[in-house]
Amino acid sequence: MNVLAALAVLGLLIVIHEAGHFLAATMQGIRVNGFSIGFGPALIKRQRRGVTYAIRALPLGGFVSFPDDEEDSDIAADDPDLLRNRPLGQRALVISAGVIANLLLAWLVLISQATIVGLPSQPDPGVLVMAVQPGEAAATAGLAAGDRITSVDGTPLGRGEEAIQVLVKQIKGSPGIPFQLERIRADQQTAITITPANHQSGGKVGAQLQANISGKTRPAKGPFEVIKHVNDQFMSLLNRTVQGYAGLITDFGTTAQQVSGPVKIVEMGAQLSSQGSAGLVLFASLLSINLAVLNALPLPLFDGGQLLLLVLEGLRGRPIPERLQMAFMQSGFVLLVGLSVVLILRDTSQLSVVQELMGR
């Protein structure tokens, strides 16, 4: 059930992203002829009011298509309602609307949780291990996703973000130096020794950490406390996400190993879902923000790549040649599909059930 919940969240976020593009176009009277979830051949296809809605074979995203993209379209090339004939500002809004929709959804999910369920009570002691990279120090020491780390060398970690900072500081400050962790797995507490690898930025163990949240909540003292709490949580998630993608530029070798594909994303979602509604809300918000930041990158096939072409058009005073635009987008599609296949294969091979089968 936790896996199904994670899949449902992932699918919903893709739909919301594409709905942002779709609504931004239709509300401005811009012609739209397709709304698709996934890429490749259509598995389910329905047409309504001139728009073809489809679910496609490769669930790696989605797209909204326009008559501008069809060579055999019967719509006049100078039709004012074609996307390419609209002012740059209107086109930029359509391109940006998916990112805006995901950011807005993340904020609304957090505000709904805080308003209806209440604010989270103080996190449980310790730090939750979200994921472990095979072959790294954490995996060698015996850590696994779902473990709760409660102390370092006999000193309790505390709670929440403070606990994460204490553990990270210990890891980064101990390259090649072993230290002891107390961890809880299946209600059993054991001690393990871990030796961080020596890395240019300090010690590294290859584990993703998260505050050990519980499903307990408390009523908010008023609307201002709700808004402040949600804004702080939203900005924290957004900053961490941006910093993570920035690491692909400043420290590609390390950060690239932490990039997750669809399988790992669903696994992490299932893990968070097991902690109750608070964990599922955190997963939905974090994933929605990740989709927004990822799509804002100025790369082919992403919204940021299309915005880059639009900026270049504004600077040149005329559109980029169509053959260059096509080459730019096609290279992005090949890159996206290739990267997704690699990540799916890598993440699937790292699933505990697959490793057990391979061990047999």
Structure description:
The protein has 360 residues and is α+β, with helices and mostly antiparallel strands. Among the domains are: 130 residues, no CATH class; 91 residues, Pdz3 Domain, CATH 2.30.42. The strands form four sheets. Strands 4, 5, 6, 7, 8 and 11 form a six-stranded antiparallel β-sheet that branches. A two-stranded antiparallel ribbon has the order 1-2. A two-stranded antiparallel sheet has the order 3-12. Helix 1 packs antiparallel against helix 2, helix 2 packs antiparallel against helix 9 and helix 5 crosses helix 8. The chain starts with a helix and ends with a helix. The C terminus is likely disordered.
State the main characteristics:
single chain; 360 residues; alpha+beta; Pdz3 Domain; 6-stranded antiparallel β-sheet; two-stranded antiparallel sheet; 11 helices; 20% strand; disordered C terminus
Q: Count of helices?
A: 11
How far apart are the termini? 27 Å
Helix content: 40-55%
Number of strands: 12
Indicate the radius of gyration in whole angstroms: 23 Å
Overall pLDDT score = 79
Give the uncertain stretches in residue-range form: 341-360
Q: Biggest sheet: strands, sense, closure? A: 6 strands, antiparallel
| Structural class based on helices, strands and sheet pairing | alpha+beta
Shape: elongated
